[in-house]
Design brief:
This protein is 49% helix and 0% strand. By secondary structure, the chain is mainly alpha-helical.
Length: 131
């Protein structure tokens, strides 16, 4: 069991390294207009996102805080990147870092292959959308 955990951890680390370098090269979904965010000093960029967004975007903060990601202490940068390479909408590959099994299950549906997770799940709460 420990060997399987170690192998999975190694795969996650390797994927993160690949994803981080890939996002820098092709731009991906990196925010095109960083000016939409207030200018920050290098010191302010070290402050956790939620410390400001708790007041700036309280609805989004509450969605995250009450979700399994919030309860599990999954931080904003783990899905959205850091300030320098922030993504407003993470790609499915960003979700796959932690949710390989769920992503493989979703990819079996032909209509889900090119969609972002937010097309089927509410952002931050990740509950299935009911139309």
């Amino acid at each position: 069991m420990k060997k399987l955990f170690g192998l999975n951890l190694l795969l996650v680390v390797l994927f993160l390294l690949w994803a981080c370098t890939g996002a820098q090269k092709d731009g991906g979904t990196v925010i095109a207009d960083a000016s939409a965010h207030p200018e920050m000093t290098e010191q302010e960029m070290l402050i956790p996102c939620f410390e400001c967004h708790q007041e700036a975007t309280p609805d989004i903060y509450t969605e995250w805080y009450d979700s399994l990601h919030g309860i599990g202490m999954v931080k904003c940068y783990q899905c959205h990147g850091t300030f320098e390479n922030m993504k407003t909408q993470p790609e499915a590959s960003d979700c796959m870092v932690c949710h390989v099994g769920q992503m493989e299950k979703c990819m079996k549906h032909d209509d889900a292959k090119d969609k972002k997770c937010s097309s089927c799940h509410n952002t931050h709460t990740f509950k299935l959308k009911t139309t």
